[in-house]
């Protein structure tokens, strides 16, 4: 017996649900890649990317996922043997650092914890010890999609300033751009990167990088530059150089539509919508946690992301069975626990094209699954979520 006819709902942190308008925007012939329309499409997207990152710097679009954009960043500002500092708060900054290691960069990890965000004071203390300025760049994620941690990027930026350290400040906004405020220039960020398939509601396949002048200066002498990723190559006047070859025309149509939708809603409202829906999820998880088996992975409420919630599940209970129930019986795909949380957690994504019925439906299905599988949980999670949303979205 199943109740899953109709659309499967992806509550995974990427790829996320694409709006019908975004899907339809791709259903047309390609543009002549040498036409004015193509140039205008690119120029508009590069300009709007800068608006999303909130920078007066430069932006780049790569045919790549987030892993590709990571390499784009590293290769443009580092040389073999350079040292970087990775700020751990889960899996993703670590993985960015692993790419750097493979490229011949020396990586030091500022040890964190899967259950909390980066501590800015620890960053400052470590940087103060680096009196010779050996650390060339600091890499961190705004939201760690594995742990569900939300890092205080402006506070980390202030810590770097307080230590009077010269390293480039490089931030991964893959799981937060277009969902939570991001202020590249105001927060002292030198390089930021993201990708298309999470908050930006577009198919996987586009990686984005934004860069300020300080990073472009460092770039001039970077030894790891390769033609495909190279910013200087992409700064060339011929349009096709902006993509180092054929433009990903249909993905760009999709992105254009997604940006138009974000700006039409208004970024402030987009951010508020994410906060409200995240808080809705957290009210359900808090109630379920009273059963002593489920718990928030991130312990401090202020450090929980508005885009994904990682829920731990105690010994003797298998998140895979809950995920399988939700998917196979009810058509809701939950995120898997990854890294150290593999087999110990599941994730509920609430990023991008999400609304109240999607989120309340997902919570309802989780609760159905918990009941059907006999996983102990506090009663009334979905109802607590509904009550909270009703109080906070006024008539
Ligand atoms: C998903 C994700 C990535 C990796 O992106 P891919 O497109 O899967 O390569 C990097 N960083 C964060 C924070 C992510 O959530």
Summarize the SSE layout with pairings:
Layout: E1 9-11, H1 20-25, H2 36-53, E2 58-63, H3 66-77, E3 83-87, H4 92-102, E4 106-110, H5 120-129, E5 135-141, E6 143-144, E7 149-150, H6 153-162, E8 168-172, E9 191-195, E10 206-211, H7 213-219, H8 231-234, H9 249-265, H10 267-289, E11 294-296, E12 308-313, H11 319-330, E13 332-336, E14 345-349, H12 356-373, H13 381-392
Parallel strand pairs: 1-13, 3-4, 3-5, 5-8, 8-9
Antiparallel strand pairs: 2-10, 6-7, 9-10, 11-12, 12-14, 13-14
Helix pairs in contact: 2-9, 5-6, 9-10, 10-12, 10-13, 11-12, 12-13
Pyridoxal-5'-phosphate binds at residues 13-14, 65-67, 92, 141, 143, 145, 172, 174-175, 195, 204.
Task: Tell me what you see in this structure.
The chain is an alpha/beta fold. It has two domains: 9-16 and 267-392, Aspartate Aminotransferase, domain 1; 31-263, 3-Layer(aba) Sandwich (Aspartate Aminotransferase, domain 2). Helix content is 41%, strand content 16%. Strands 2-10-9-8-5-3-4 form a seven-stranded mixed sheet, with helices on both faces. The chain has a five-stranded mixed sheet with strand order 1-13-14-12-11, sandwiched between helices. Helix 4 links the parallel strand 3 and strand 4. Helix 5 (120-129) packs parallel to helix 6 (153-162), helix 10 (267-289) runs parallel beside helix 12 (356-373) and helix 10 runs antiparallel to helix 13 (381-392). The two termini are 39 Å apart. The structure holds pyridoxal-5'-phosphate. Pyridoxal-5'-phosphate (PLP) binds next to helix 3.
């Amino acid at each position: 017996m199943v109740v899953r006819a109709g659309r499967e709902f992806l509550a995974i942190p990427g790829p996320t649900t694409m709006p019908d308008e975004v899907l339809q925007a791709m259903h047309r012939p390609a543009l002549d890649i040498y036409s004015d329309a193509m140039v205008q499409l690119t120029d508009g997207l590069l300009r709007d990317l800068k608006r999303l990152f909130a920078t007066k710097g430069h932006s780049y679009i790569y045919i790549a996922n987030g892993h590709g954009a990571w390499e784009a960043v590293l290769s443009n500002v580092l040389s073999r043997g350079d040292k970087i500092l990775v700020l751990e708060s889960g899996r993703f900054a670590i993985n960015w650092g692993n790419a750097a290691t493979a490229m011949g960069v020396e990586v030091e990890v500022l040890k964190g914890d899967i259950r909390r965000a980066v501590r800015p004071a620890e960053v400052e203390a470590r940087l103060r010890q680096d009196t010779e300025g050996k650390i060339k760049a600091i890499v961190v994620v705004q939201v760690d999609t594995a742990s569900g941690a939300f890092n205080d990027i402006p506070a980390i930026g202030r810590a770097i300033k307080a230590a009077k350290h010269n390293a480039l400040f490089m931030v991964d906004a893959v799981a937060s751009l277009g969902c939570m405020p991001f202020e590249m220039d105001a927060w002292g960020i030198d390089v930021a990167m993201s990708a298309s398939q999470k908050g930006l509601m577009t198919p996987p396949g586009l990686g984005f990088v934004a860069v300020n002048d300080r990073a472009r200066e460092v770039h001039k002498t970077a030894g790891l530059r390769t033609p495909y990723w190279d910013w200087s190559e992409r700064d060339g006047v011929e349009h096709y150089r902006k993509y180092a070859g054929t433009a990903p025309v249909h993905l760009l149509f999709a992105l254009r539509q997604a940006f138009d939708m974000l700006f039409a809603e208004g970024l402030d409202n987009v951010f508020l919508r994410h906060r409200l829906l995240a808080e809705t999820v957290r009210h359900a998880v808090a109630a379920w946690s009273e059963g002593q088996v489920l718990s928030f992975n991130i312990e401090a409420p202020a450090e929980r992301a508005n885009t994904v919630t990682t829920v731990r599940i105690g010994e003797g209970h298998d998140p895979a069975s809950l995920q399988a129930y939700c998917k196979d019986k009810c058509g809701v795909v939950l995120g898997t626990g990854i890294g150290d949380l593999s087999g110990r957690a599941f994730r509920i994504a609430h990023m991008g094209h999400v609304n109240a019925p999607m989120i309340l439906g997902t919570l309802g299905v989780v609760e159905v699954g918990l009941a059907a599988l006999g996983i102990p949980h506090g009663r009334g999670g979905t109802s607590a979520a509904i009550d909270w949303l009703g109080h906070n979205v006024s008539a």
